[in-house]
Amino acid sequence: MSKKAIGPEALVIMISLLATAVIFLVILYPQWRGATEGSADSPAECSSELLFRSMVKTVSFGYGDVPVNCEVKKRTITQKDINKFQGLSKQATQNYVQTNSQLKTTYPNNELGQTNWALSKIIADELVSCYGKGWQGKINLDQAGLLDFFPQDGSLCLYCSQITYDEQLTNSKINLELTAWLETNIAGDQTYYDKISSSLFSISEQEIIKSQGVASFLSILLKQPVVNTQILKSIATRVFISQPYIDTSKPTAIMLVIMKDGGMFPTAYPLEDLKKGTPSTGPICRKVIGEL
Fold first, then answer.
1. Which residue has the higher pLDDT, 10 or 76?
2. What is the sign of the dihedral through the CA atoms of 220, 226, 229 and 230?
3. What share of residues in the chain are helix, strand, coil (percent, to 5)?
4. Which of 1, 189, 224, 280 would you label with 181, given CA atoms 20 to 30 Å apart?
5. So where are the chain's domains?
């Protein structure tokens, strides 16, 4: 009795399924697992959508496509949220005074300073969560098929969350630049800033910036024989987004800003400021993934 031969269509399906399994197990899953391991976020949201799109694009040799509809989280910060960190904020502001830290100006040891500290903590945790949507900086833009999302000029933004403030905080009109807080507070085994900035600059650039500051880094760049204006614009954008800022009189957009070379950083700004940028950067978010 002769065995029935496998038809060409069935063979193609079997090969495709096998290729999908191999690509997932060997290439994509290790990246995804390494990037999401230890994260407080469930990887089931935006990062898994990007993973699935990456698989489809890879298996179909770039021809397949699936939409990425990253859900934007909406949150209103209230006085109740601030009060959750009353003990930590009081301890931190007392320490700033005792050590004569420069942070004592922004975070004085009083009710306002402690509110500022708690707000900074809440936004910092949102930034860490947002960074997780990009596999904590380890996402491969080409494999994930994100390069075809990019505008011709400017950056791509993943809209992670929209933060509004209750009436009491809105009326207070609190303005905070968060970089100093991020650089001096710990998330796990490193500072918040180190945790979310690992893929913003190259390692050598990070060392220069840490030891000598941004101004020194820019001066070194300007001394190069040929200065590419596009590179300067890219650096200006990175400097801008690496200094998150909130104004409680306006809604805050938590965005993961992704550069075309793979550099990324989660940032917090009023949405109109991210769209506008600066004269040296131009608009920061020319294209946004994720809508309210």
1. 76
2. negative
3. 50, 15, 35
4. 280
5. 70-289
